Each structure stands twice: as structure tokens, then as C-alpha cells.
């Protein structure tokens, strides 16, 4: 039956490879559930689970600083609201298309369920590239994007946040335009806001910090600890930098990171203040980090962090960035843990190679859920018109990540797959969403 459902997904969504990959990965975890809980696996429920509730595609015209008009495409996929309002980020990157947004929204549905918080799954974005654009151009784009998106969102309906290419600057412009059009200060409509106007402390840090908490829990389950280990992260954006920061604070040495141009290797440990300056403030290339670090760091044009020997590898850049060859190189160099900060960065072949070598592997839908969990904490603060301290917010984040680890670990054991966090995350997420869908009838 699962094969039939997958074949139907292929027919209905032709050419959408990433979406197919994400669906297949979840369905492959379900045969054991099918045996034990047949009531959850009836065809209608699985068919509905693989079909978004709503998909919106729209035109986004905007004018650049030279007065030229550009036309981009905007997307919002509202995948599943059985557990709460749709929740998931917006991505601005030239590679964004319906396939990418749909796979991200599907993943988000299970991830959000795992947090234990009342949020459904959605995702959105545009093929707009903010790189090299002035602040004024980014603002005009965001205003045009929100002029259409505002029809579809709301604090009880759909609550977007940031993702690749959408940080504090973009959320600010998007929120401003929403407020202007609706004439409402509806703080809970977007998360990732600035702390002075409805944002939460620790939201920028949350995905990366949460990833490291999850990684430390996996190690602890095997009587190991992060302290003293060598870590590599791919990417050098929001998730990667905060993962590196938390890993360093936990006693690890983070020896390499990358961007779309290449990687830096810094054997003494990355200088995180410099990295933040170069990548988050100056929005410059990673090569500038190596130049400013003097002789301490080596820049490898086109290089991959997977070639650098490490105990822990944290892919934090983009989907399908860690392939089978990279996985085999990591295994050959003695890696013990691979935990996904990005969404679906590891190809299915790479996951198989890592698992065959008994490397601990954490899927993004569990390991990077700290970002959306803290977004849900931001919604809680907005609803009660309060602002928690950084410490209180981080403590809640830590508790939630430990809870997610516990859920995945125990579910995998309960279904006879000890140590298989992919199965644990998929099954636990599926049970939570599936039970709610079933209770709410055929809709
Ligand atoms: P950012 O835009 O802040 O950073 C992305 C980083 O990845 C940049 O360093 C970018 O390099 C690099 N990168 C992008 N594409 C490639 C590529 N093809 N090859 C090598 N490097 C690449 O995004 P985020 O850190 O927010 O997001 C990263 C990942 O984490 C995404 O998969 C996202 O969906 C996921 N995620 C993000 C969450 C969040 O809270 N932000 C929450 C959960 C998951 P360059 O600077 O050259 O562009």
C-alpha cells in the first residue's frame, strides 16, 4: 500500500524530486506502524497527509535602484494544520521553486509535531536573490511580496518566519508592510521579529543552539561527550554560526565552515566574532575571513568541510549537500556523529553509508527543530504580551530539544529500531499528526 501511495505522489507531482525524496523517506519508516497501528495507516489518511491543504503561487514585481522592474515568483505552501496554524519559514534564494517549498513544508509538518507545540506545517519563499541587493531594493521586494502574502496569513491562520536569505532585516520589512496594510499590530503573525517590537530573545540562536543540544544528547546516550571533540559545520549563515558558537561553548573545537564559494579550515578553532562580522554584518565572502585572520586560517576555494577530519559533522547550509562520497570520506576519517542543521542536507545514499558504519545520524526534522520551537515560544510571548529573558527562553529551548531527543530515541526503541533516529523522528511525528487528522475527520 505504501508503494501505491508513493506512486500516486509521483504521478501527481511530476518532476518534483526533492518533494519525492522527502515523502519517500517518511513512508519508508512506516511499515512497522502499518503492522501495529493499521487504523492510522488507511490509504485516505496517508493520501491526505501527502497532499498540501493549500498552495499559493503569486507574482512579485519590484523596482531596483536604477528604476528597472523585476518580476519574481512568490510561494506559500500550507501543508497541514491538524495541530495548529501553519508555521514555517520563508526562503529567498534563486533555487526556490514549488518543489523546494513543498518538500520543506512537508518536513515542517513532522518537525513541528515533534516539538510538542500546537503548530501545523507550512513554508514559503521566492526565487528572489537578496545577495548584492541594496537595503532599499530588499525593502521594496519585501513590501511587494507581503502585499500578496498578507491575504493568506494571520496569527491564527499561518505564521511565517525566516529561513535562508530571510533574516532580521527582511522580517522587519515584511512585518512593517503587514502592519501598514492591515492597520493592526498583530505581533503573532510573523516570528523572528526584533526584540524591541515583539521578537523573542534567543530566536536567532535557537536553531544552531538546539542542534548542538540534540547532538550532545545523542552522544550522552552512548556515554560520550562533546567536550574535546573536533567539529565541522557547513555553511556560515544563521544556523551554522550559532551551532559553531554553542559547540565551542560546550568545549568542542570547531575547525571548519563553508559558504557557497568554498571553505575555511582554522585548526585553532574558528574566531566566531570575526565570522559573525564577515558573514552576518558585512555580508561578505568567507575568503574575507581568512584574509582578516592572517595566517591562522586556510581558505579553500570550492573546498568542502567533509574532507576535514572531525568527530562531529553538522551540515547547516542546504539540501542534498552531503552525498555518499562525502559520507564515506567522513567515515574514513572517523566521524562519530552527523546531525542535520539544514533541512534534508544528507542524500539517502549518504544516510545509508553513515548508518552502515554505525555513525550516529540525526535528521533535520528532529535536530533543527529548535528554531521553530522558539518561534512558537515567540508566539506564546506575543499572545500574553510579555518578553521573557534570554536565559528563560534558552532554558525552554534546551528542555524542548531534550524532549525531542527522548521522543525520537524512545520511539525508535519501541518500534524495534534502537539508535535509528530517522525512524524515531518519522514515526513519532507521523503518530502525532495522524492521530489528530483522524480525530478531525475527512477534511
Ligand atoms: P542563511 O541564509 O543564513 O545561510 C545559509 C548558508 O549556507 C550560507 O553560508 C550560504 O552561503 C550557505 N549555502 C547556501 N547554499 C549553499 C550551497 N549550495 N553550497 C554551499 N553553501 C551554501 O540560512 P540559514 O542558516 O537560516 O539556513 C540554512 C539551512 O538551515 C537551510 O536548509 C534552512 O532551511 C535550515 N533551517 C533554518 C532555520 C532557521 O531558523 N533559520 C530553521 C531550521 C532549518 P553564502 O553565504 O555563500 O550564500
Features:
443 residues, alpha/beta, Rossmann fold, five-stranded mixed beta sheet, 17 helices, 12 strands, 16% strand, binds NADPH dihydro-nicotinamide-adenine-dinucleotide phosphate, NAD(P)-bd_dom_sf
Shape: globular
Regions with pLDDT < 50 over 5+ consecutive residues?
A: none
Q: Mind telling me the CATH class of the domain at 204-367?
A: Alpha Beta
How many beta-strand elements? 12
CATH topology of the domain at 204-367, by name, is Rossmann fold
Helix fraction by DSSP (H/I, runs of at least 4): 40-55%
Structural class: alpha/beta
**Shape-level CATH architecture of the domain at 204-367:** 3-Layer(aba) Sandwich
Q: How would you characterize the largest beta sheet?
A: 7 strands, mixed
Distance between the termini: 21 Å
Mean pLDDT: 97
Query: Secondary-structure element order, as H and E?
Result: HHHHEEEHEHEHHEHEEHHEEHEHEHHHH
Question: Any ligands, ions or cofactors bound here, and which?
Answer: NADPH dihydro-nicotinamide-adenine-dinucleotide phosphate
Amino acid at each position: 500500500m505504501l508503494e501505491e501511495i508513493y506512486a500516486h505522489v509521483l504521478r501527481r507531482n511530476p518532476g518534483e524530486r526533492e518533494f519525492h525524496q522527502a515523502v519517500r523517506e517518511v513512508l519508508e519508516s512506516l511499515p512497522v506502524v502499518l503492522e501495529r497501528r493499521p487504523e492510522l495507516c488507511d490509504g485516505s489518511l496517508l493520501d491526505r497527509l501527502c497532499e498540501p491543504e493549500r498552495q499559493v503561487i503569486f507574482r512579485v514585481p519590484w523596482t531596483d535602484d536604477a528604476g528597472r522592474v523585476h518580476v519574481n515568483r512568490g510561494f506559500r505552501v500550507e501543508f497541514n494544520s491538524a495541530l495548529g496554524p501553519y508555521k514555517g519559514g520563508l526562503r529567498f534564494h534563486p533555487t526556490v521553486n514549488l518543489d523546494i517549498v513543498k518538500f520543506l513544508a512537508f518536513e515542517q509538518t513532522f518537525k513541528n509535531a515533534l516539538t510538542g507545540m500546537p503548530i501545523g506545517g507550512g513554508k514559503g519563499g521566492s526565487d528572489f536573490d537578496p545577495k548584492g541587493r541594496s537595503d532599499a531594493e530588499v525593502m521594496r521586494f519585501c513590501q511587494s511580496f507581503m502585499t500578496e502574502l498578507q491575504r493568506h496569513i494571520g496569527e491564527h491562520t499561518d505564521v511565517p518566519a525566516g529561513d535562508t536569505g530571510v533574516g532580521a532585516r527582511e522580517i522587519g520589512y515584511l512585518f512593517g508592510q503587514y502592519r501598514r496594510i492591515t492597520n493592526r499590530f498583530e505581533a503573532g503573525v510573523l516570528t523572528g521579529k526584533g526584540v524591541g517590537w515583539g521578537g523573542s530573545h534567543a530566536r536567532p540562536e535557537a536553531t544552531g543552539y538546539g542542534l548542538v543540544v540534540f547532538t550532545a544528547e545523542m552522544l550522552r546516550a552512548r556515554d560520550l561527550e562533546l567536550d574535546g571533540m573536533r567539529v565541522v559545520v557547513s555553511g556560515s549563515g544563521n544556523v551554522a554560526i550559532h551551532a559553531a558558537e554553542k559547540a565551542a561553548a560546550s568545549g568542542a573545537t570547531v575547525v571548519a565552515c563553508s559558504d557557497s564559494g568554498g571553505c575555511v579550515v582554522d585548526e585553532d578553532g574558528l574566531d566566531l566574532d570575526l565570522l559573525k562580522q564577515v558573514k552576518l554584518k558585512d555580508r561578505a565572502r568567507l575568503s574575507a575571513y581568512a584574509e582578516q585572520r592572517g595566517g591562522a586560517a586556510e581558505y579553500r576555494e570550492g573546498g568542502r568541510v567533509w574532507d576535514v577530519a572531525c568527530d562531529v559533522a553538522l551540515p547547516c547550509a542546504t539540501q542534498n549537500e552531503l552525498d555518499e562520497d562525502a559520507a564515506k570520506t567522513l567515515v574514513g576519517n572517523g566521524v562519530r556523529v552527523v546531525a542535520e542543521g539544514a533541512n534534508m542536507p544528507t542524500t539517502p545514499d549518504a544516510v545509508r553509508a553513515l548508518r552502515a558504519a554505525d555513525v550516529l545520524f540525526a535528521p533535520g526534522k528532529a535536530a533543527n527543530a529548535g528554531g521553530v520551537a522558539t518561534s512558537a515560544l515567540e508566539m506564546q510571548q506575543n499572545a500574553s504580551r510579555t518578553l521573557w529573558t534570554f536565559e528563560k527562553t534558552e532554558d525552554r529551548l534546551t528542555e524542548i530539544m531534550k524532549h525531542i531527543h527522548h521522543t525520537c530515541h524512545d520511539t525508535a526503541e519501541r518500534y524495534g529500531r534502537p539508535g535509528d533516529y530517522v525512524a524515531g523522528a518519522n514515526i513519532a511525528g507521523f503518530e502525532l499528526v495522524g492521530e489528530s487528522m483522524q480525530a478531525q475527520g475527512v477534511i
